[in-house]
Amino acid sequence: MFGAGLSSVPALAQDVLIRHATVHTAGAQGTLQNADVLVQGGLIRAVGSNLQAPASISVVEAEGRPLTPAFFGGITEIGIEEVSGESETVDSAVTLADGQPMRPEFDVTLAYNPESVLVPVARVEGIGFTLLGAGTGGSFIAGQGGVLRLDGGADPIGPRVLFVKLGSDVLGKSGSSRAAQWMLLDQMVGEARGRIAADSPHALLTPTGRAVLARYLAGNGRIVVTVNRAADIRQLLRWAQRERVNIAIASGVEAWKLAAEIARARVPVFVDALADLPGDFDQIGATLENAARLHAAGVEVSFAQFGDASHNARKIRQYAGNAVANGLPWEAGLEGLTRVPAQVLGVGERLGTIAPGKLADLVLWTGDPLDVAHVATQLWLGGKPIPMRSRQTELRDRYLPAAGPLPRAYAP
């Protein structure tokens, strides 16, 4: 098959010294000019100036170009969705027979395919990890996902994440009322905490589902809630405080209205930074300044797309750049693609910043990585140089006519 094997990577990490780069660490060291990064055994061993390369090590001359941590691709279905219009290639949501209880135990990472053609498509854009998200099928409790590094490995890293969706988009899954969403959620919490008998004829959860939900209620894992309306976000903050659970907000179009409350609750937000118009009645307060206002209040801000995010993961840095253009500090935009999602999702000890001991997941750029006029020239994952090609680039190279004496528009 054309393009087969594009998701494979070299078997062994490459020891490399990247020299004379503008190193955006996304961490405590900030940005280092004319700095070097030494990679050995798949890990960053040293960051500084005038580092000496051990004998026979490969040296990459950055010539002042930006070097960043590998980027977060957002909340996607990369590897669990191939062709969105072909149901047999989509594994992101569960819809069981009528009368089946809600299934928080559903885990989309079990269907992840590391050989998906979408993996190299994302990698050539400097994306090194993504959060696989569960979609709403038969319930507004979507199920679980997790962080996948796009290094060819088949298994997620870090803790699982539980996905919940609230608001008008899931009214049909909650008795046609958003008030019923809280009623049903409170019943599930009661079952998981043992306040409602497991053998109740109206039980919503299976025994496994109760155990899974109980784990999140005990603080072992984060619940990511897709929600937009400020009134719903307020109820979510109250619920999270009452139940003492770790949550994050996804989309959060009207989150800026409650920025101070969100900051006090230490709830991070995965912002839809291109939401500037009220797409529905939950988004009346849409503004391109959402990320900037949240950050100014002290909220940790990352980014996510909503709508075909898997096939358009490359746009995530456009989201960050757009937020920067509308008031978010540049450094916060970069951290929203690196440090913030890694820490929020429980993988910050390994990913998200350039520092000794971290995985050598790095990207060298032609220029400002938040400016779509620039591109990634090389991605390393665990020190492995990733081939900067995908099915699209190979199709381009195969069928694009060679340059001739006339512009391509006039080629036969």
Determine the fraction of residues in helical runs and give it as a percent range: 10-25%
Beta strand % = 15-25%
The residue ranges in which pLDDT falls below 50 over 5 or more consecutive positions are 1-11
Q: Give the oligomeric state.
A: single chain
Furnish the topology, listing elements before pairings.
Elements: E1 16-24, E2 31-40, E3 43-48, E4 58-61, E5 66-69, E6 71-76, H1 118-123, E7 127-132, E8 141-149, E9 157-165, H2 178-192, H3 207-217, E10 222-227, H4 230-243, E11 247-251, H5 259-264, E12 269-271, H6 290-297, E13 301-303, H7 316-325, H8 330-335, H9 339-344, E14 362-365, E15 376-381, E16 384-386, H10 391-399
Parallel strand pairs: 1-4, 1-5, 6-7, 9-10, 10-11, 11-12, 12-13
Antiparallel strand pairs: 1-2, 2-3, 5-14, 7-8, 8-9, 14-15, 15-16
Write structural notes for this entry.
Helices cover 22% and strands 23% of the residues. By secondary structure, the protein is α/β, with parallel strands linked by helices. The chain has two domains: 1-70 and 352-390, Roll (Urease, subunit C, domain 1), CATH 2.30.40; 72-350, Metal-dependent hydrolases (TIM Barrel). Strands 1, 2, 3, 4, 5, 14, 15 and 16 form an eight-stranded mixed beta sheet that branches. An eight-stranded mixed beta sheet has the order 6-7-8-9-10-11-12-13. Strand 12, helix 6 and strand 13 form a beta-alpha-beta unit. Mean pLDDT is 92; it is low at 1-11. Residues 276-369 form the Amidohydrolase-related domain.
